[in-house]
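#struct-help
A.M.: can someone run this one for me? Single chain, 297 residues.
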Amino acid sequence: MKKVSFAEFGGPDVLRLIDSEEPHAGPGRIRIAVRAAGVNPVDWRVREGQVLNAHPTELPAGVGLDASGVVDEVGEGVEGIEVGDHVFGEGSSTYAEFAVLSAWARMPEGLTFEEAAGYPSVTETALRVIREVGVRPGQTLLVSGASGGVGSAVLQVARDRGITVIGTAGVANQDYLRGLGALATTYGEGWVERVRELGRVDAALDLAGSGVIRELVDLTGDPHKVLTIADLAAPELGVRFSGVAGSVPDALAEAADLIARGKLHIPVEKSYTLAEAAAAHTDSQAGHTRGRRVVLV
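D.P.: on it. Structure tokens below:
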């Protein structure tokens, strides 16, 4: 089968499309014929060799955590899923023609494989950070870097829970944020004052790692009310870094419910082929994403 792999840590140029042996579903796992794989920042952070305890890497290594596709092997002990089912979920080495998933859910009706591949990690992350930052219905959450996949999910989950969201993003994404129910403003000079004009901030999330931790602490008045998934230096300022996933099966089940109820939709900004994986990583690292990027198989 075809698979994207890298034999050394480095930039996007270390990615290679290779021929590889097919993986197989062990106990408690399923294998899918991959139709699409989600592109996440963790993919290129692992490729660069950044220290990520949750994702230990032995070289050569495959790429990708998220995927959608058609079940073609069911491991021992797995119940409630059959060969031929359409699923989306999380596993390993998903930039490939076949991949083994450790967590999955059936795709909601009407969702395409391309769309479905963009949901697993971002919705798990969104649900986790909303829970960990402790924001409650009736309060206001500030989201820095709100237009990407995780931000798009946070905005919609928060709205469904009765939480007001202030989102920062580039000029081109202001209408996008407003369409997701957020109070939107641009980052850049004067952004803190613009946020203050929009209202009190009870909690804040840093999703972009753009060096705004001090300002978020100032806006909330308490480092314990700020959480980041992107700034590894944040703990030096007393701010928590959230990098370890919670229950992915539970998150996928909640995501499927939100999608089915029309409460969650994350658009696919751009799709790539397996041979274009390096370009997908380059674009992901550049930021300014609206929604999700996926690799089609």
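A.M.: thanks! The chain has a mean pLDDT of 94.
D.P.: also worth noting: Residues 120-133 form the longest helix (14 residues).
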